[in-house]
Amino acid sequence: GENVEQHPSTLSVQEGDSAVIKCTYSDSASNYFPWYKQELGKGPQLIIDIRSNVGEKKDQRIAVTLNKTAKHFSLHITETQPEDSAVYFCAARDNAGNMLTFGGGTRLMVKP
Amino acid sequence: DTGVSQNPRHKITKRGQNVTFRCDPISEHNRLYWYRQTLGQGPEFLTYFQNEAQLEKSRLLSDRFSAERPKGSFSTLEIQRTEQGDSAMYLCASSPGQLTGELFFGEGSRLTVL
């Protein structure tokens, strides 16, 4: 089955700096890669996603890049704000489209 | 609120007791998923339903776990003879279907087994 590795497990940045979180996946047939943000006591919420026919996608301060050959994808957050502090999860969906496999998470702390 | 609703939000039980969690998905969503999340880890897939049919179950779902979605709407997840290792957050998510991709998660049901 699919295996998703995520790094780093914790990331601390100063407000206004950029943050980058990286993930690798094992199943070359995976074709959908979402990123979720989870705040304390809440369920994960989708913040951005990318499909395998696209190399990059941007939405305001967040962007995701995908390298299918290397089987890795990254989340980039620019001009970080304290409210960006949360746990971020990457995920990959199998080709059958049946389920998401999640990475282990990155705890992002933005210091004011 | 038309999001995914889970009840109870917290459950504390003694080892050996049975517990049941309920999930009400977004009304027009035909796919419903159960995930388990332990502290500091990502969600792990347990099972999913397409309407009332349970189409896939993870190896994590031991014989003590059973999930149902009898009318294709709400779902229940029952854990029998709970063990301390069952302590986790149980997350429910729903999706309109395969093509859209996005899962909409509820806020979870936290289980503590003493």
Give the arrangement of secondary structure elements.
The complex is a heterodimer of chains A (112) and B (114).
Chain A lengths: L3 E4 L2 E5 L4 E7 L6 E7 L6 E7 L4 E4 L2 E6 L4 E6 L8 E8 L6 E3 L3 E6 L1
Parallel strand pairs in A: 2-11
Antiparallel strand pairs in A: 1-3, 3-8, 4-5, 4-9, 6-7, 7-8, 9-10, 9-11
Chain B lengths: L4 E3 L2 E4 L5 E6 L6 E7 L6 E7 L2 E5 L7 E4 L6 E5 L8 E8 L8 E2 L3 E5 L1
Parallel strand pairs in B: 2-11
Antiparallel strand pairs in B: 1-3, 3-8, 4-5, 4-9, 5-6, 7-8, 9-10, 9-11
What tags apply to this protein structure?
A: 112 residues, mainly beta, B: 114 residues, 7-stranded mixed beta sheet, 4-stranded antiparallel beta sheet
Describe, in plain words, how this protein is organized in 3D:
The complex is a heterodimer of chains A (112) and B (114). Chain A has no helices and eleven strands. Chain A is mainly beta and 112 residues long. By secondary structure, chain B is an all-beta fold. In chain B, a hairpin with an 8-residue loop joins strand 9 and strand 10 (104-105). The radius of gyration of chain B is 13 Å and the shape is globular. Chain B starts with a strand and ends with a strand. The model of chain B has no long low-confidence stretch (mean pLDDT 92).
The description of the largest β-sheet of chain B is: 7 strands, mixed
Query: Low-confidence stretches of chain B at least 5 residues in length (pLDDT < 50)?
Result: none
Strands of chain B, count? 11
Tell me the overall shape of chain B. globular
Helix content of chain A: under 10%
Number of DSSP strand runs of chain A:
11
SSE order of chain B, one letter for each helix or strand = EEEEEEEEEEE
Q: How many distinct helices of chain A? A: 0
Please state the structural category of chain A: mainly beta
Q: Largest interface by residue count? A: A-B, 25 and 23 residues
Report the radius of gyration of chain B as a whole number of Å. 13 Å
| SSE series of chain A | EEEEEEEEEEE
